[in-house]
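Hi everyone,

Forwarding the result from last night's run.
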Amino acid sequence: MKTFEYFLCCLLVLMLVTTCSKPPEFPAEPIIKFIGISHAAIDQSRGGGIKLDTIEVRFSFTDGDGNLGSKDSTNISLIDSRDKFEHSFKVNPIPQLGSGNGIQGEIAIKLTNSPDTKYFCCTFPNTRLTCIASTKFPTDTLSYFIRIRDRSGKWSNTIKTDRITIFCK
C-alpha cells in the first residue's frame, strides 16, 4: 500500500509542476536560426527548356512580443551573397497561442529556378551579364543572408544559408 501512496504522491507533484510551468520567454526582437536547405545544386534561372526545380530554405524563429508577420508589407529579406541583391517576401501575421505573448515556429521559403524569379542566375567576372549559358564558367555559387522584421520594425539577427551551386548551362 505504501508503494501505491508513494506513486500517487509522485504523480500529483508531477501534475502540479507541469500545470504551473511558465511559457517560454523570448526577446522582443525576432531571433532566427538556420535549419537547412532541401538540396544544394540547381540549374540556373533562364528560359528555354530547363527543368524547373525548387530549393526550400528553412529556418526557425522566436519573437517575444508576438508581432511577427504582416498583411500589407514584406518582412523577410533574402540578400544574394554575390551582389547584395535583395529579394523580399511576406509572411502573414502569426497568431499567438497560449497565455504568453511570445511565438515560435519554422518558416520555409521555396525558391524556384523559373525564368521569372531569377533567384538562381549565374554571374560572371568582369561583366554585367547574368542568366546566360556559359561553357567558360560552368558553375556559380551563392548563399543567401536572411533576416525578418516584426510589425514594430525590429529586425532579427542575420543568418546565412549553406552554399548553393548553380549550373550555368
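The domain at 24-167 is CATH 2.60.40 (Immunoglobulin-like).

Cheers,
N.
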